[in-house]
Amino acid sequence: MSEIVNKVANSKLMVFDLEDYYPDHHVVAIDISQWLFGGFVLRESEFREQLKNTDWSVYEDKYVALFCSEDAILPAWTYALVAAHLAPFALKIIHGDKKVAVIDWYQDILNKLDYTDFFDKPLILKGCSKKEVPNEVYTLAIQKLIKVSKSIMFGEACSAVPLFKKK
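Now predict its structure.
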């Protein structure tokens, strides 16, 4: 019986896995409706008092997504006031839901990565993940990887879809 050889492991093929950079507990969302009267009416003095009494330190070093789950009509300064309380603690404050903040997190990470290990190499942009990597992040990643890699496939080595090949 001949030995089974793992051709993928022995190839120059490299894997770029976005799940490696998933923010886990670094991205949180705050629903502003929690501070609104009845969940949808902003009473300024009560709103300011509740913000003043909130422990903002729990958002230390986090990307914070600010949103309102209710169909409330809010003055333009609402989110800015919450952001003013968060600013001394949060790494970044995003107006939107958690998905928007996760995409922003990835954009910042992808902008800071060193891609020299992938220079002129065949690459698989891993597509199957246990964590919810937003599809938008793959679009961000391909823009970075296409500049350095020889070729890019999407998925797993056993069933990869070709995306790019340098001419």
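The longest helix spans residues 98-112.
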